[in-house]
Amino acid sequence: MKAAILKTLDHRWLPAARSNRARGLWFAGLLAVLAIFLILSVTIGTRDVEWADIAAVLCGVQDNIGQAAVALRIPRTFLALLAGAALGLAGAIMQGVTRNPLADPGILGVNMGASLAVVIGVAWFGMSSAHAYIWTAIGGAGCAAVFVYTIGSLGRGGATPLKLALAGAATSVAFASMVIAVVLPRGDIAGGIHAWQVGGVGGATYERIVPVLPFLAIGFAISLLSARKLNSLALGDELAAGLGEHVAATRAIASLGAILLCGATTAVCGPIGFLGLVVPHLCRNLIGVDHRWLLPFSALGGAVLLLGADILGRIVARPGEIDVGIVTALIGAPFFIWIVRRQRVREL
Hints:
InterPro entries: ABC_BtuC-like, ABC_transptr_permease_BtuC. Pfam families: FecCD. This is Iron ABC transporter permease. Belongs to the binding-protein-dependent transport system permease family. FecCD subfamily. The chain is mainly α. It has one domain: ABC transporter involved in vitamin B12 uptake, BtuC (Orthogonal Bundle). 76% of the residues lie in helices and 0% in strands. The radius of gyration is 20 Å and the shape is globular. It starts with a helix and ends in a 5-residue tail after the last helix. Mean pLDDT is 86; it is low at 8-17.
């Protein structure tokens, strides 16, 4: 019965349900694009490199400037892969938990909550260790998520998509203002904080990446294991409860996975917006609303989009570069406006 209801829901959202064969082909196509972007990310930059330089670095040799450039790009590429997958998956989880097509770690204030917590930790408590950054960012992300959901739940109708989006937008603006207020008197840290707040993967090192791996691994595991329960939530709270799901626990556990992904990513990359909004929408149009497919697709699509944005930022501003946070904002802002118009937010 549950499978039949989910199939009906899939037809309701899309003109036709996607077959597993078609989904498999799309997944293979995304993997191929990802492989191409991984190669381009290592080869494209201010300095051209040869294939021999790449092979030498993979073998542990760094004898010239080209090989040194490759050695810097490999951890950057790895970080973009992880961060994109984490944010894409977190966006799909948040949209599933809230049943809100506008849900996104940036729009709902989660990224900015993590950012504010880190800035306060640095400015007021002298925080400097990688693990302190990560725990603080995760705590800030969690507090922001609870705050926005609480505010969006007030009043008649509960937590509607429009109220959550408005509460998240207002919270993001308020937190951004608080970040400025905290940093303004601290000229000694202002430059580094402002650069981090833009959101980017430049300057990545293995020393920065390794501490976040356990948090990302747990976040990925929790999120992907929530797929079936999110399918139940998509049917509505009453029907999900009738099918034996504990609605509150399902929301809390899935949200925990998204918060871990957002907090850990923000700690190492800074707040990167709109990626978690764009990717799940595109994937949903490709493969349908079944979260067993949507979540892996969103992770893969997020990695592709962030790698592509990083590559584009290096190309358009050579010999300089544009941080991925700016590129994703330029892509995501028009997409957000299009979604609002398409979904007729007043009716949500």
